[in-house]
Amino acid sequence: MITTNQLYYQDNQLREFEAHVVSIEPSERGFRVILDQTAFFPEGGGQPADRGTLSGIEVLDVQIESDHIVHYLKQKPSGNTVTGILDWDHRFHSMQQHTGQHIISAAFWAENRSKTASVHLGKAYTTIEFETESMTRAEMRAGERLANRIIGQNLPVSVLYPSADELKNMTLRRPTNKTEHVRLVLIGEVDCVACGGVHCSRTGEVGLVKVIAHEKIRGNTRLIFKIGGDAYADYDLKNQIMSELRTELNVQDQHLLERVQQLEHSLVESTRSLHVLEQKLARNMAEYIYAGREQDHELPFDWVVFFFEQEEERLIKEIAKELLKREQVACCLINRYTDHYTWTLTESERVSIPFVELRERLFERTRAKGGGRAPMWQGIGPDPHQAEVFGQTIRQLLQEYCPR
Ligand SMILES: [Zn+2]
After folding, report:
1. pTM for the full model?
2. I need a surface site. Which of 91, 153, 187, 343 has the fewest CB within 10 A?
3. How many domains does the chain fold into?
4. Which residues constitute the domain of residue 21?
């Protein structure tokens, strides 16, 4: 039995209150403050703890601990009395989520006989897991529609403490094992369930509920909802996105999906033909580069260095792959940008560059970096004006490491 007077049960709209301090003690989580009464709802039953201040000091957390409601404060309050002020936006959000969840659970039970298995009241959305392996779109819509009808009817949300006898004759949506001090929360005549949370006074305060996604989990179906202010904010955001898409694609809402599918299709087609052209270009470029190779008498293979200016890296890689198809040739393809360059070194069949051995000296002399493994190594260099030096250095090192 909780000894702190729970003001939030007497008046769910109470935002400010005075209370006497019963005890204050320091703890690892801040100062533990127990009051004779409080409007701060402690975390429980899936509902988060209220936020706000006690005499201007931030309340970090509120928990039930051995029959007391404990407020954790950032600093120690002075005096024997405190003034509590709730963060009302936070509390109202919690009440909307919680009441919305009762309404949704009642509606899905009434429409589809889908039983609520578990609930998570979140900051950005609320999830409800139903004891059903699958749910059709029509079932989701029916449950959602009924929930919004219950909201529109603006039914009273009331609390009842029945005697054990009275409780026996009542039908609860979710049975309870308790027989005494059971707190029932009723929504008009459509729902009755035991609950210790704080709720809105009427269903109209919930405003709106909307399913935004669904997933299967542990053989159940979990629906993700936007409730109340969150649903409005979500609608606002989606409307904004739709409006921008409408302008961007120059179509009405009902044709948007079709238009996006057309664009997707044409993108696939364009990508395919671009790839074909790229391949052809790579083949021709490789042919051209290979024709200009040096038959170096100091190297046991042909040697090619070629410079590009801000070329597509993907194309260079394709060219390198084409060059690999030749025999006994090593190539260095260098791509110059305004503030750096990239390098690609490749070897064809019957060439074996000892890259690991020459790597350290190459990087030391050119300040370039990179790696890879045969037949292709890639990297970058810091200064585009040193790109030719990189080509010369690697050639010198090859002469040294791969004598004829
Ligand atoms: Zn509740």
Report:
1. 0.74
2. 153
3. 3
4. 5-86
